[in-house]
Amino acid sequence: MLELKILLVDDDPIVLESLDLTLKEFGHEVTPVNDGVYAVEEAARGDFDLLITDLIMPGIEGIETIRHFQKHHPGIGIIAISGGARGSSTPYLNIAKAVGAKATLAKPFTASELNEAVDQVAVASA
Predict the structure, then answer these.
(1) Which of 5, 19, 8, 29 is nearest to 125 (CA)?
(2) Residue 86 pLDDT
(3) What is the distance between the alpha carbons of residues 37 and 24, in angstroms, rounded to a whole number?
(4) What pLDDT is stored for residue 104 in this prediction?
(5) Of 42, 39, 94, nearest to 61 (Cα)?
(6) DSSP-derived secondary structure for 79-103
(7) How many CA atoms lie within 13 A of 49 on its CB side?
(8) CA dihedral 108, 46, 26, 34 (to 10 degrees)
(9) What is the pLDDT of residues 31-74, one digit of tens each?
(10) SS3 (DSSP) at 87
(11) For residues 94-118, average pLDDT
(12) pLDDT at residue 89 in the model
């Protein structure tokens, strides 16, 4: 298993903490932040292998965050996550994939689904 440096972005503190703990249990180094502004700031300070970002957030939302990373950090693997994808008329996860996410997960998802997506994107980005 690869140990990855992961930048994790979600505005829901419960989801952020849960995903942070799950990713750390899988052996990854995780930097959790609660919006796209902090994600951009953290990326300027450090080198990350993977970005996992929620899509619907205040401030810099997920699609804009993905676009920023595609432009300024093109080597990073990106996973988009969203609870707005289920039952919504707007295909947020499809848009995320179109602008550069290598994988998408609709909330709620399992730890094994998260781990599988992380492994898939890590291999594709290596």
Answers:
(1) 5
(2) 54
(3) 23
(4) 95
(5) 39
(6) EEEESTTTT-SS-HHHHHHHHT-SE
(7) 17
(8) -30
(9) 999 999 999 999 999 899 999 999 999 889 999 999 999 999 99
(10) coil
(11) 95
(12) 41
> Could you tell me the two tokens for 105?
């997960």
| 87-92, long-range: CB < 8 A, 24+ apart | 92/55, 92/56, 92/62, 92/63
With vertex at residue 100, the alpha carbon angle to CA 93 and CA 34, rounded to the nearest 5 degrees, is 65
Type of residue at 113:
E
The structure's pTM equals 0.93
* Site of tokens 């952020």: 16
Kindly report the CA angle at 29 between 124 and 9, in degrees rounded to 5?
Answer: 75
- From 2.40.50.320, 3.30.430.20, 3.40.50.2300, 1.20.1070.10, which CATH number describes the 5-94 domain? 3.40.50.2300
